[in-house]
Task: inverse folding
């Protein structure tokens, strides 16, 4: 009796639930490149190359192990173009009596899987995706009937549960969180290590050719493609990060630099999310560096917090709040996404750099995403759906389970405060403090109004004025609203006028 085991593009690990108990004599692993998944948003070219090349490498590794892999390529003339179609064909082809699946990372795909149960002429077993450190059920139990789900409390719970950076019952060093030590500006002469990137091998070059041919107009360039496409290379990249960049990760976690998005960041999210690396091994390696005196506590705690805290937490929120989470629009934002998100053509130097980094690397680090790209969309009042689609397609690490809460909950406050206690809205002063963007910008970050003023400055106050009925009550916004109260009507009218003139002038015609 043949058992068919499906492995999706983001399940590329021998430990994935659907491969557990595999019998090479009777079982077949199905992997399929399908147009529906490759085009449900117009993914960045690097994301497509990374995933297809990594899928092919993983299939080859399974075959080397003696596993039978049925791999359907995108250009196979028989390819039906959908996961459902390919699963159906494979069940017939192999006469499979049982199909084993691992839960996917997207609600949309989970719905499809439920539908397969009805449609297919075989038994279907859907296994939990246990590559996370907190199961969906445990997160639900933690969330209980709290309305607001604060990450910090979840994170402490995860520290206790995993034992990471714990001295018995107490946090290592006496504090749970060293966030205040993670906000240094990058000194002008800071030495930033070169990162381990990987020249595309022959198989990856073939995928690059395929992607350029079939998706010529998708966002992004392939010139600087340097992602690892195998577990072995992803591990090398991780070790390289831990030895060279992790020690300074903590201090400069929030810093931004023109023309250099990597700074001291991990560059591991595409690997974690696709299964090439696991969250526990990544944290263990960082903690080991701390215990051996190779990295300070503020760096290692900050890094571990991102993974066992933020990453697990956003996944929990996603499954808890779907399917309605993507529809929330607490601030009734209704502007079309400005073209500059696609073209990088804007005089705002910070935005131009963040979009260009995204285009060239399918990567931008967290503060670029949150405090520049997300902040601008928040202040400008861009429709959440359009912001979601943009964030879902432009990054090599993007899947809905992680993109959506970050956009809805963190960047746009579209969920009305489920994740954040106040919107992450900031004026130009924040960007100036954390980056070198402003020095060479056509706008003056110190000016508050007029043609040369930094648009973030008047957009920030315009945002607070516009959304006053919904935001004034928020505790953590009491101070800016007090400042606003001290402004006279003429100043407020000036802010509104500058913001309107600027926003009305932003083209928004491009369809992604
Ligand atoms: P590092 O800075 O080195 O951090 C280490 C790891 O921590 C990351 O690899 C990641 O796995 C995890 N992490 C850190 N912050 C978060 C977070 N907020 N949510 C989830 N995991 C986190 N991350 C994605 O993986 N996919 C996305 O689609 C995605 N979309 C985002 C959209 C917005 C609007 C924002 C503000 C953030 C988004 N993030 C997303 C989170 C974060 O920006 C990226 O995980 C991080 O930039 C990846 O780079 P890195 O590996 O160098 O991370
Ligand atoms: C993102 C993506 C892309 C581009 N292509 C495929 C594919 O061809 N085959 C596949 O199995 N999965 C693909 N994926 C991932 C899915 O769109 C989806 O994000 C995950 O299956 C969710 O777990
Ligand atoms: Fe961005 Fe304003 Fe600084 Fe220019 S001056 S880089 S627009 S924050």
Result:
């Amino acid at each position: 009796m043949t058992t068919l085991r499906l492995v999706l593009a983001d399940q590329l690990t021998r430990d994935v639930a659907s491969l557990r108990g595999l019998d090479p004599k009777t079982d077949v692993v199905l992997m399929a490149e399908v147009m529906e998944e490759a085009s449900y948003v117009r993914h960045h070219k690097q994301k497509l190359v990374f995933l297809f090349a990594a899928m092919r490498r993983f299939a080859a590794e399974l075959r080397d192990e003696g596993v039978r892999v049925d791999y359907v390529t995108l250009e196979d003339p028989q390819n039906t173009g959908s996961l459902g179609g390919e699963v159906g064909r494979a069940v017939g082809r192999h006469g499979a009596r049982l199909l084993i699946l691992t839960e996917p990372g997207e609600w949309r795909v989970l719905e499809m899987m439920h539908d397969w149960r009805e449609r297919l002429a075989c038994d279907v077993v859907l296994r939990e995706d246990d590559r996370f450190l907190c199961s969906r059920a445990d997160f639900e139990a933690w969330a209980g009937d709290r309305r607001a789900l604060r990450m910090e409390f979840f994170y402490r719970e995860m520290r206790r549960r995993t034992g990471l950076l714990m001295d018995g019952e107490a946090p290592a060093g006496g504090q749970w969180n060293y966030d205040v030590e993670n906000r240094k500006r990058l000194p002008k002469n800071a030495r930033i290590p070169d990162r381990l990137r990987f020249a595309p091998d022959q198989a990856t070059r073939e995928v690059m050719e395929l992607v350029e041919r079939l998706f010529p107009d998708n966002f992004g360039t392939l010139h600087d493609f340097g992602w690892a496409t195998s577990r072995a290379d992803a591990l090398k990249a991780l070790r390289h990060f831990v030895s060279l960049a992790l020690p300074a990760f903590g201090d400069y976690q929030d810093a931004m630099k023109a023309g250099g998005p990597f700074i001291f960041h991990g560059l591991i999210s595409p690997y974690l999310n696709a299964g090439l690396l696991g969250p526990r091994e990544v944290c263990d390696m960082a903690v080991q560096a701390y215990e051996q005196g190779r990295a300070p506590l503020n760096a290692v705690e900050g890094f571990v917090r991102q993974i066992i805290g933020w990453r697990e937490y956003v996944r929990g929120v996603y499954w808890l709040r779907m399917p309605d989470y993507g529809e929330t629009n607490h601030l009734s934002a209704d502007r079309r996404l400005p073209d500059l998100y696609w073209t990088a053509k804007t005089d705002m130097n910070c935005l131009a750099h963040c979009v260009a980094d995204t285009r060239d690397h399918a990567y931008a680090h967290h503060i670029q995403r949150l405090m520049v790209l997300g902040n601008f969309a928040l202040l400008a009042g861009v429709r959440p759906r359009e912001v979601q689609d943009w964030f879902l397609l432009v990054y090599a690490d993007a899947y809905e389970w992680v993109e959506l809460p970050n956009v809805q909950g963190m960047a746009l406050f579209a969920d009305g405060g489920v994740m954040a206690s106040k919107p992450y809205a900031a004026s130009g002063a924040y960007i100036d403090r954390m980056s070198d963007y402003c020095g060479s910008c056509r706008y003056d970050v110190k000016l508050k109004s007029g043609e040369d003023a930094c648009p973030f400055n008047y957009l920030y106050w315009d945002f607070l004025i516009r959304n006053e009925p919904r935001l004034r009550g928020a505790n953590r916004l009491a101070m800016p609203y007090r400042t606003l109260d001290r402004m006279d009507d003429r100043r407020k009218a000036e802010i509104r006028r500058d913001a309107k003139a600027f926003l009305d002038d932003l083209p928004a015609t491009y369809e992604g």
